[in-house]
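Lecture notes, part 5. Sequence design as translation. It can be helpful to think of inverse folding as translation between two languages: the language of shapes and the language of residues. The source text, in structure tokens, appears below.
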């Protein structure tokens, strides 16, 4: 059999194949929307893994799961090829290996974590390759388009929806000054910020106490929280120096 003949190649775009690919894509689309919904909850609380990360992982997982229900369409439905191959074992090895690759680009710097979306996109790309390898060409194209849309428009959607901006705060107090958590908490609440319990780390250098913690902006202002907090800390009693940065953990 000539695998490059028109009759063989056309089977990948025949009506039964397109119906299977469309059904696969509908499952992928549903997983994308639900994954982004769950990711919004994380994004709302200022976490690093937001709508894009959850959407990509959910989409890729659904794609891998749903294609196992269509073994009769693997490799264009060529029985001889399917009977002599076990794609599920190959897929398992690919997913595991790419998972380690994605973990290598995740970076953590203090309270800030970056690279999660890039890692998820690499994993989603491997699933696109798997779909092509198995023979679901239409579904792989639609998966690639939906993943690209998720990555391009996800940040814009997150900016339109209400969310809490998280800020990492480093306070260096004046020598001999004794800071108090409750005083700090009340001061932050008066200015529309929420002190994140469990985020405090304390150190001391040259008799100066250093506090490192995370605060959340609860007022949903469009003005960057880091700018407002910097202006307020200039007038906070006992603070000698401070350092602010965006926190996504």
């Amino acid at each position: 059999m000539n695998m490059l003949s028109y009759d063989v190649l056309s089977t990948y775009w025949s009506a039964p194949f397109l119906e299977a690919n469309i059904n696969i894509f509908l499952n992928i689309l549903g997983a994308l929307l639900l994954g982004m919904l769950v990711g919004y909850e994380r994004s709302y609380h200022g976490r690093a893994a937001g709508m894009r990360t959850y959407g990509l992982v959910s989409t890729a997982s659904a794609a891998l799961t749903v294609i196992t229900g269509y073994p009769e369409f693997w490799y264009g439905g060529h029985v001889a090829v399917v009977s002599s191959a076990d794609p599920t074992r190959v897929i398992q090895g690919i997913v595991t290996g790419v998972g380690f690759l994605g973990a290598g680009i995740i970076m953590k710097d203090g309270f800030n974590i970056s690279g999660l979306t890039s890692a998820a996109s690499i994993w989603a790309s491997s699933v696109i390759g798997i779909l092509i390898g198995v023979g679901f060409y239409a579904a792989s194209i639609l998966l690639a388009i939906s993943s690209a849309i998720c990555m391009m428009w996800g940040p814009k959607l997150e900016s339109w929806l209400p969310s809490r901006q998280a800020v990492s705060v480093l306070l260096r107090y004046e020598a001999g000054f004794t800071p108090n958590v409750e005083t700090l908490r009340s001061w932050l609440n008066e200015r529309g910020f929420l002190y994140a319990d469990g985020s405090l780390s304390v150190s001391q250098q040259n008799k100066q106490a250093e506090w490192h913690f995370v605060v959340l902006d609860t007022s949903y202002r469009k003005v960057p929280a880091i700018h407002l907090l910097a202006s307020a800390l200039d007038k906070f009693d006992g603070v000698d120096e401070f350092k602010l940065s965006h926190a996504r953990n």
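The translated text above is only one of many valid answers, since several sequences can fold into similar shapes. Residues 15-44 form the longest helix (30 residues).
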